[in-house]
Structures are given as structure tokens and as C-alpha cells.
Structure to design on (449 residues):
């Protein structure tokens, strides 16, 4: 085994890596934001008294959670193409990741909704809050606060999973790595470096979510009760 | 080019599905053994062992499986080690699964009530006796539903082996698509087969979880 590592040639390409990392973060950000919206709507839908709505949301969650992301990406990519619609690889990647993470978010937020004690809702009804007020103040925010740690871990996993979109030539971090390694023949160094960048990105995301948590759930901080 | 989907294609897909199952079993077995060691290290009395195993888990959980696959398949040959697609995929899955299962099982060990550990110590059982005879039998019961649930993740993640040229279900779909060019139909069939493999496990895990007390929120790698 001849160990002949040359990280210098790879380091020289840092602008490309940086651009790839930014695109990965962008993908993660779009999918996280839209996925949260889908998750809240999906969770409300799954608890709907309307059986058809609840059923559709249930099917969405189960289908997405039981098929690989890679296949979902191909289906969205080729599905849109066969409908004659042309989108950039980035748009397709963002759409596929959003659809994917939306299902997981739905499940997590639903678990949060289910954890709100019945008595809380009855108390809110007793205080003559409207249905919308109850959902907003009594169900949704406390529920999201409860599942916030699970949600954020899911979003970090999503960021890592976005590497799969390199397969439809979205120009994110893994795609950049593939290009650089085929250009320099330094596969080992390239992928080690990319792995380190991904680890840094996940640490950055965790730190970001922790700070965001302090801002949007100040009650926890004030009471000083760990979740 | 051209032609339509026929029995031969479906046979080929079936063959790919068998490899998906095979690769999942390799990942489950290899990752299970390694994950058990990781879990034991995570609750070790030695600080250094705990620190190293925590670092390992953090490293692997912070890296996409796809990059681990590329690293083993393209990276190792660059160092002079030749690997076949099966070896690369199997090794990558083993590493990936060990970090996640190790973490799941650590949680299961720790959720065995503290008095059980203390009582075993009070009965002067050795560390290995305490582990094997008191903690493990209880931890296995706690660990079953999340482990079955995680098997779904393993099956889904074997699809990433297609990128290193390993012909499992997703790759055999790509190969057929290259000759027929009916991507929507073929990938729908592929998705249905994955669903048929995963959904029973999901249901089973859910049922086990319901029987064993309150459901925990589970995290899943997409």
C-alpha cells in the first residue's frame, strides 16, 4: 500500500467546495422551510375529522417513509420531464427533498399534537377561545416546542440526505466532489475533505437551530426547565 | 432502444430485489455486531472509551452515507486497496448502521431502570453477569420495535449502493430504463417493490411499539 496523500491540490479547489456547501445549505434551507409548512398542514390533516383528508395525509406519509429518497428523486425528475415540464436540477432537487422531508415532519408534528393533553384544549374552550386561536396558541406552539429537538435532528439528516441529489446533477457539495475527484484523480483526499465539510455543516446547523430555539421558545429558557 | 416491459425485465428486477434484501441483511448483521460494540463502548465505565465511541458516532452521523460509499469505493483504490462494489457497499452500510444502531441501543440500555443495575450490583454479580443476565434481556425487549423500524432505513439506504455500480433494485431499474426509456413507469414499479419490502416492517414495528407502552418519536434518515 503506497500512502501518497496530497491534500494541497484538493485544497486549491476550495472556492468550488465553498460554492457546493452553500448550495447544499440552500437546498436544506428551502426544504426545511417548506417541509415545516407541509408538516404542520399534514399533521392537521392527519387529525382531521374528515376521513378522506386524514386518509390522504396518511397515505402520503407512509408512501414517502417506505420508499428510498433516490427513487423519489428519479420519479420527480423524470415525472416532470415526461409531463413536458422543464425545471433546473436544483428546482427538482429542492422539490423532491421538500416532498420527502414533509412526510417525516408531518409524523413528528403529529406526535407533538397528540401529546397535548385533552384538558388543555377543554380549558381553552372554556375560556371561549376560537377554534383557530386554540389551534395556534394551545396546540401548535406547545406541540412544536415539545418535538423541536426531533424536528431539528430530522432537518440535519435532510441536509445530509441532500447529497443524493447529486445523482440528478444538482451542483451541490457531493456533485462538486465527484467532479473534482474525476478531475484530479485524488478520490480519497476529496471525499475525506467533503466528509469533513459535511460534519462542519451539520454542526453549524445544530448550533443554528439551538439559537433559533432560544429565540422562538423563550418560555423554556425563562422557566429553566429542560425539555 | 425501444421494446416494452416484458417478463425478462421483471425477472431482472426480481433479481435486483433479492440483492437489495441480501445487502440489507449484510448491513443488519455487520452493523448489528459493530453497533452492539459501539453501544457497549458508549456506556463503558472508561472515559476514554466513551469519548472515542462518541466521536465515532458523531463523525458517522455527520457524514452522508453516499460520501462514505464514494470514500470506500473510489477512495480506497486510490490508496492501493481494490474493492468490489459488493465489498464497498457492504462495508459502508456496516459502518453507517453501526453508528445509528449503536446510538439506538445505547438509549435502550440506559432506559433499563437504574434500580435494576444497582440490584445486580448489590447481588455481587460481575459486570459481565450483570450485563448478560440482568440488563440485556430487558434491553432487548425495549430495543425490538426501534430496531425493526430501523431495518426499514437499512433497506431504503441500500438503494445508494447503486451509485458504486452494485446491481440491486434501484440499479437494475436504471439499467432497464436505459434500454426502454420509460422512466416514470419503471421507477414507479421500483418504488412499489421498495414499499412492499418496507411497509410490512413499518407496520410490525408500529405494532410492537404500541404493545410495549408509549410510542417514542423516532428519527429516520431519509
Amino acid at each position: 500500500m503506497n500512502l501518497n496523500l496530497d491534500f494541497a491540490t484538493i485544497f486549491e479547489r476550495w472556492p468550488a467546495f465553498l460554492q457546493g456547501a452553500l448550495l447544499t445549505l440552500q437546498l436544506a434551507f428551502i426544504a426545511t422551510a417548506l417541509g415545516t409548512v407541509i408538516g404542520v398542514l399534514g399533521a392537521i390533516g392527519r387529525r382531521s375529522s374528515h376521513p378522506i383528508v386524514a386518509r390522504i395525509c396518511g397515505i402520503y406519509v407512509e408512501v414517502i417513509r417506505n420508499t428510498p429518497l433516490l427513487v423519489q428523486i428519479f420519479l420527480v425528475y423524470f415525472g416532470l420531464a415526461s409531463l413536458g415540464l422543464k425545471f433546473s436540477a436544483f428546482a427538482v432537487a429542492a422539490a423532491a427533498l421538500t416532498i420527502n422531508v414533509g412526510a417525516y415532519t408531518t409524523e413528528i408534528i403529529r406526535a407533538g399534537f397528540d401529546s397535548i393533553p385533552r384538558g388543555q384544549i377543554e380549558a381553552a374552550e372554556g375560556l371561549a377561545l376560537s377554534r383557530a386561536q386554540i389551534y395556534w396558541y394551545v396546540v401548535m406552539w406547545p406541540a412544536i416546542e415539545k418535538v423541536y429537538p426531533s424536528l431539528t435532528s430530522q432537518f440535519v439528516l435532510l441536509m445530509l440526505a441532500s447529497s443524493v441529489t447529486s445523482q440528478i446533477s444538482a451542483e451541490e457539495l457531493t456533485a462538486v466532489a465527484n467532479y473534482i475527484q474525476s478531475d484530479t484523480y485524488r478520490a480519497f483526499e476529496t471525499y475525506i475533505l467533503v466528509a469533513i465539510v459535511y460534519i462542519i455543516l451539520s454542526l453549524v446547523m445544530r448550533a443554528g437551530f439551538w439559537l433559533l430555539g432560544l429565540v422562538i421558545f423563550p418560555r423554556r429558557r425563562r422557566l429553566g426547565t429542560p425539555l | 432502444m425501444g421494446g416494452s416491459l416484458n417478463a425478462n425485465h421483471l425477472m431482472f428486477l426480481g433479481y435486483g430485489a433479492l440483492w437489495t434484501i441480501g445487502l440489507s441483511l449484510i448491513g443488519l448483521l455487520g452493523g448489528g455486531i459493530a453497533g452492539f460494540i459501539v453501544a457497549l463502548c458508549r456506556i463503558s465505565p472508561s472515559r476514554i472509551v466513551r469519548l472515542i465511541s462518541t466521536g465515532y458516532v458523531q463523525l458517522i452521523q455527520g457524514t452522508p452515507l453516499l460520501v462514505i460509499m464514494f470514500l470506500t469505493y473510489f477512495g480506497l483504490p486510490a490508496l492501493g486497496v481494490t474493492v468490489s462494489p459488493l465489498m464497498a457497499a457492504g462495508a459502508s452500510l456496516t459502518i453507517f448502521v453501526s453508528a445509528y444502531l449503536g446510538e439506538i441501543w445505547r438509549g435502550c440500555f440506559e432506559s433499563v431502570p437504574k434500580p435494576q443495575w444497582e440490584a445486580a450490583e448489590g447481588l455481587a454479580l460481575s459486570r459481565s453477569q450483570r450485563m448478560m443476565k440482568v440488563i440485556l434481556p430487558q434491553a432487548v425487549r425495549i430495543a425490538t420495535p426501534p430496531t425493526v423500524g430501523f431495518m426499514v432505513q437499512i433497506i431504503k439506504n441500500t438503494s445508494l449502493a447503486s451509485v458504486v455500480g452494485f446491481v440491486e433494485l434501484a440499479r437494475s431499474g436504471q439499467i432497464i430504463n436505459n434500454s426502454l426509456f420509460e422512466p416514470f413507469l419503471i421507477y414507479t414499479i421500483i418504488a412499489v417493490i421498495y414499499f412492499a419490502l418496507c411497509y410490512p416492517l413499518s407496520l410490525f414495528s408500529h405494532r410492537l411499539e404500541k404493545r410495549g407502552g408509549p410510542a417514542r418519536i423516532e428519527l429516520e434518515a431519509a
